[in-house]
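ok here's Spore coat U domain-containing protein, seq below lol
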Amino acid sequence: MSRHSTSACLLGFATLCASPLLLAACTTSSGTGNFGSLSSFTVASTAQTITGTTGFKCTGSLLSILSTNTIAATIASTANPLGTTPRLYNAASGTYLPYSICKDNGCGTVYNVGSTVRWSSTTFLGILGLFNATDGSLPLYLRTATGVTLPAGTYTDTIGLNWAWHLCAAGALGLCVYDDGTASSSVNVTLTVLKDCFIDSAPDLSFGSAALVSAFTAVNQNIGVRCTLNATYTIGFDNGNNFSGGWRRMLSGANAIQYNLYKPGDSTVWTTSNTQAGTGSGAAQNVPYRAIVNPAQGNVPAGTYSDTVRVILTY
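and the structure came out like this:
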């Protein structure tokens, strides 16, 4: 009986010793960081934060063995840095947009070129829980700088990462067997900046008061616009609500005062077909025009005369 008992115990011990090692398996592939397509004014005014995939993945035993597990990613290079600051670049315009590389969504710590990002956990299970990018890889967070005036176009950069890891995987008897390794990966970053335009102001136009139609003087006014840097645009005026006989008209009941809108120094009526072209600066721009009452028309009864003209900004 004791011989049988002893034999069974030895057999059990031999079986445990033959258990396979469950090592961590870490691999790399290309990652991505896509900011999407955004208005130039959105990019200038609001920092954009995205979760980038790094392409670094690890698999292995999920045993919660207390141990030290670390992964480090050194930002070895970027394609368009200014010093150690990474930048997105648009080759067509030669313009740059700085951005930050962060470990967390809040960007509490910014990592520049040459910096090393480190992750650690006392369990392998805990560190695997950090692999929550959309492709299952370890994420990095990217955030754009604000206050930069950009032309429309596609902006790109490539981040080069050097990886090193020291991970505890389950070995025989549930003991910790460390897997140490190094690898490299790259992250392709993209942002598409869209052209955009706004009519910031279109003040009411007043000719004031006069007893005779011929006494109304010309009035100079501005339309305030804001368009993406280098974006071309045109501004036109429609004919208003009461156009007739080549003249816009302000009405008071059945009575009318004829007037028109002109470009400064131009005797041609400003319409939707005779427009004014411009190029955006990314900042506010005033587009001047001149309003003139037809001095050759007859006098009209006293009253308040009005019309509504629409400003059409095309880009």
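fwiw Residues 1-22 have pLDDT under 50 and may be disordered. kinda neat tbh
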